[in-house]
Amino acid sequence: MVLVAVLVSAALSSLAAAQDFPTFPDHPKGDEESLWFREPNVGYGPLNYASMSLFPSLRSGFETHFPESMPSGKFDFRVNESWVKFSSSSDLWRIDYEVVRTNLGFSWALSDDVRLDLSIESSSRTGGTLDAVILGFHQAFGVATGYRNSFARNENRIEIQPPDGGPRIVVDKTDPQPFEQAAILTLRDTVTYGNEDLPAIAWSVSARGNLSTGDLSRSGPFDLGASLGVVKEFESFHLYAGGNLAWFGREEFFGLKLKPIQWSTTVALEWRAASDLSLIAQYVLTSGGAERLSDFSRPCHEVLAGFKWEPKGGVLLQFALEENIVNFANSPDFGIHAGITFRW
């Protein structure tokens, strides 16, 4: 939490120092030397966040890849982590746990337009400590805590009644960790960087190899994904829209059948508030992962608010807070997302 406080404080200081910063033209002075702003329409990009809902987090790693300005021959290494609290209760389930997702990624720009990415994805459940943060917020602002008071503090438990009947699925802190681990190889291509009228467009294809069977029974060792991302610049704003589609084959979670196809849509607005700082609002919609399981068969909705900050050339930090909307039973209650990218 100290690191989080330092990142927020430094970013706010950078924003305050930019009060007299002039309105950004299409390409601010110095951007021709930037490793992120060499091409038209592209910005720092959306937050590198994948859904942390119950079933998507069991097989995460596929993201929507948007156009980026990464010169030929350059490399980057990134570390992204998401930490969320998930609690949900109904007649069919009682779920309360926290999950930490870690993604380590390496990229190589084969040309100004084409990139090759390799990332390692891992997620683990934990009892955690976000309960205190969530309850403190609710108490401070007089918001009802709902069914949260019915859970033990810092519990680590998933209990689900299968739709076909039979014994309840019970997974607790004795379950081996991590519950999801994979390597993802991605080929990304920016078709066009657009112009004053047209947006930049990029597509990607990915293959995901499972490094650990985790909590899922799988029909094969590989999963496939593809994405399409679009971005358009409007003065100091960048508007992003895109989605990805993934195929996982036949998979089961302790006998509970999961959908073989998963899709996700991302919409984000980036405001370049200073020469080295962007504020980002982001919405992620992800299809439900389970078959015939009420809210868990319907899409989950997650919103994020945060920033990306470049404290020095070639180093980019990101931080955001996550909240759920619409389908509260199938979305994390609250989360923290942070990351760092080194580009050279």
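The above is record 1. Record 2 follows with the same two-line structure.
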Amino acid sequence: MNLLHEYKNGNYSVKLYEDGTKVRETEEDKFISSFPENIDIKISDKCDGGCSFCHENSTLDGDIANFNYEFLYSLRPGTELAIGGGNVFDNPKLSHFLRWCEHRGIVANITVNQKHVTSQCFDYDGERHYYRNINTSRIFDWINRGEVHGVGISYDGNSEELDKIFTDDEDYYAEEYKKNAVIHVINGVHSYEDIMKLANKNYKLLILGYKDLRRGHKYLAENEASIKINQQDIYDNIHSIIKSFTVVSFDNLAIEQLNIRRIFTTKQWDEFYMGDDGSFTMYIDLVKGEFAKNSTSLNRHKLLDTIEEMFEIVKSE
């Protein structure tokens, strides 16, 4: 594994590798952070996806963020940003922000909806042909220049179209794209069968907890029975899912909903669990100019001038 960044944070050291592996080391009894290692950062409330379970309430006429915030200059090299929306491609300053991050040693990752990167299809002589989506071309360029390190793709259930994103070009860039890609599924929205359509194809998988918030609240009220069935099937078959993907990870909400602690020994849990929300992570909404412990927290604060000031407030909560 190639070392991407190494830095000191509070009373411990961090090594971050190119494949996403992170190692923390300390000589003390616990890890005490001075600044966030990971920040979930929203740059757009605009999106044409119309997902009925969207907890961000993103819409076609949603606002986009600017990047004229003083705190950005206080971000430390090695800090990871999970840049999302809305549709990140709707923010015209995204490319400029990614270049800025790379120049300052900040590790930028982006989250996109599958429909915004799906390869385009056309029929010719009775056969289906594909050509590269323009957004995929942009991602190839960002990865090649080291401006993007990870790409989260929100799965829409169409496994054939997802596979085509990585197979319509038999070249180096498509291969690198898949190495950097993590497929996002939502506990309850996606069924066990949806997930297993992607099994044994060398995909990395991230299972997100179901967020009962904004449009997600309405969707749950209207589809509670099917959501509960899907969640129970994933709960019952979690071992099968883990065995079928190159990497399987979870956000803290999914860890709680699926009781992931049950499948680990105490030693394994201490080694792999990355900490509670707000211990090493935080959420920033650049559209509204707010920060919080995570994206579902209703306890929001106005952005301050340094990341350390904001992180102290988050940790105190």
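The radius of gyration is 19 Å.
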